[in-house]
Specification:
The protein is mostly helical. The chain folds into 2 domains: 99 residues, no CATH class; 115 residues, no CATH class. It has 10 helices and no strands.
Length: 252
């Protein structure tokens, strides 16, 4: 790997953690129905308006040693974790998909999945605004990949339509409306093959992880499906085609 490539990856990571800082704003404000574009960032304990040098992703948290400079209240670990995770997600996407228009969309797509996962885990609700954002990304992805527009169009309904039927038959008890909208947007983005794989991976992750949490952490039977679906979709986006090819070659 040459020095230029290393610098590009460093830039991607720095851009990723910067966007991760904005994701923290979304995670805190969207469930509270507050604006994510207006209103200054402030300490959630004392309300002090944060200065620019207190808003540098990751580095400010380390410089402040995890405490507010004014009231000395502990700053939630959520802030550096979300920033670092988003930076790593962007690095993974660019490393595996290259510096392409689709990879840029995939970075934003990954950030949306991360944001809705945290919000859904806390509130058991996927914000409609994030689902709409994913749908818009899906539309752009389909336009970029116009020669395969049928794959994207089928993906829009491949999982969301069966889930909608389950929703109607169970009167909303079998699946959440937010999950249906999420799968529609993600299906448009990925196409039908990858969204089917992503859905089944998400179900597998939910089964293994949630049963483990129930056994060892006494977690409730009900679960937020969004984080597991998001994990399955992310894995399918990065490795899905290779996995499908490997699977099909087993029968050839």
């Amino acid at each position: 790997m040459d020095s230029l490539a290393v610098m590009m990856y460093i830039f991607v990571f720095l851009l990723g953690i910067t966007v991760g800082s904005f994701l923290n704003v979304c995670i805190l404000r969207i469930p509270a129905h507050e604006s994510i574009v207006t209103g200054p960032s402030h300490c959630t304990s004392c309300g002090k308006k944060l200065k620019w040098y207190e808003l540098v992703p990751l580095f400010s948290f380390l410089a402040l040693r995890g405490h507010c400079s004014s009231c000395k209240a502990r700053i939630s670990l959520q802030y550096p974790i979300i920033e670092a995770v988003n930076g790593c997600l962007w690095l993974a996407v660019i490393f595996l998909k290259g510096f392409t228009p689709f990879a840029a969309l995939a970075c934003l797509f990954s950030s949306a999945l991360l944001t809705l996962s945290v919000i859904d885990a806390r509130t058991r609700e996927i914000p409609p605004g994030i689902s709409l954002f994913v749908l818009i990304l899906g539309l752009i992805a389909a336009l970029i990949d116009l020669r395969n527009w049928q794959t994207h169009l089928i993906g829009l309904f491949a999982i969301s339509l069966p889930l909608y039927l389950i929703f109607q038959l169970t009167q909303g008890k079998g699946i959440g409306g937010g999950d249906i909208k999420l799968m529609a947007g993600c299906g448009l983005f990925l196409g039908w093959k990858l969204i089917v794989l992503g859905f089944f991976l998400g179900c597998a992750f939910a089964t293994v992880i949630h049963l483990t949490l129930m056994a060892f952490k006494k977690a409730d039977r009900t679960l937020s499906f969004g984080p597991y679906l998001s994990l399955g979709i992310f894995v399918a986006m990065l490795f899905g085609h290779a996995f499908i090819d490997w699977y099909l070659h087993l029968f050839m």
